[in-house]
Amino acid sequence: MNVVTAIGEARDRIRAARAEGKRIGFVPTMGYLHRGHLELVEISKRHSEYQVMSIFVNRIQFNDPKDFSSYPKDLQRDLDLARAAGVDLVFTPDEGEMYRNNLTTVDVSLLTDHLCGASRPGHFKGVFTVVSKLFNIIQPDVSIFGQKDIQQAVSIEKMVFDLNFPVKMIIAPTVREQDGLAMSSRNKHLDAEKRRNSVCIYRSLKRAEELLVSGETDSGRIRSAMEKTVLEGSPDRIDYISIVDYASLQPVERVSGKSVIAVAVFFGSTRLIDNMIIEFEGGGIKCVY
Ligand code: PAF
Question: Whose CA is nearest to atom 3 of ligand 1?
């Protein structure tokens, strides 16, 4: 596995792999890897022959400087995990390499005014800017994003379409701890009690599934039942429980077409998110967590 910090060197290595006829798979990360990231690499391997991972904690997507400075980091551990997962190239630039005199930003309007976009101003602009830059540097054939960050994934799908990036996007189902908590680098900030209680988020999605399967489609009623379940875990604050249309990410009053139920909850200062995609299939309902 090669580890490079310079854009030019990353490009040279990727060009060489492409010249050997290999398709380039790309998993962008901010490091502190967990099983969820490694699963994205596994999926990437099914679609490409040369695996690139970026590890870059992107300051401009943090609306809270404290959140940026406390973001967990362990590059050596990340490199060991990436190597074991079969990554061929890790691109881990510093801030100067990525943002020297950068004046250009990328935004996707409408899709980011609700959900996490409402409580994290500027966050998505930072994500789209860095992902556009990474796509231009790596020029992957395929790139894999986790469903856990559904607003990010759906908006990047739209950005790829709107800006004609020649990248196939794959959204991979969320990888979970045994009790159902979605894996996240932020879980490490939870103390034992908050960690135990945080399973209420997953339970609230399960509750929503039960209601949907029993024929309930009223968003208000589903959200109230979910809120009750989340409160059983004594969170410090519910940021949102929302039901939105999958493509527009705008709230819906009734669940009818492909939709997303998304939840964001604070345990202490740790903000945890999770979601479920709902699809109507052959007269039934399919919920993907
Ligand atoms: O999902 C993440 O880890 C980040 O938002 C990403 C896509 C690597 C951009 O910094």
Answer: 29
Whether residues 165 and 71 share a domain: the answer is: yes
Q: In testing the pocket of ligand 1, which one of 29, 157, 271 has its CB within 8 Å of the most ligand atoms?
A: 29
Note the pLDDT tens digit of each residue in 171-205: 999 999 999 999 998 999 999 999 999 999 999 99
Find the CATH number of the domain harbouring 227: 3.30.1300.10
The answer to whether 189 is a known catalytic residue is no
Cβ of 61 below 6 Å from ligand 1: yes
Averaged pLDDT score across all residues of the chain: 97
Shortest-distance Cα residue to atom 8 of ligand 1? 29
Does residue 58 line the site of ligand 1, with CB under 6 A? Answer: yes
How does residue 107 score in pLDDT terms, banded at 50, 70 and 90?
A: very high
Cα–Cα distance for residue pair 154/249, rounded to 1 Å: 8
- 49 falls within a domain: yes
> Do the domain assignments include residue 177?
no
Q: Domain check: are 113 and 197 in the same one? A: no
Strand segments, DSSP code E, in the chain are: 2-4, 24-29, 50-55, 89-91, 142-146, 168-172, 237-245, 259-267, 270-281, 284-288
Query: Would you say residue 245 lies in a domain?
Result: yes
pLDDT of residue 102: 94
50-55 and 89-91 strand pairing: parallel
Residues 144, 226 within the same domain: no
Residue type, 181: L
Provide the residue range defining the domain that includes 58.
2-172
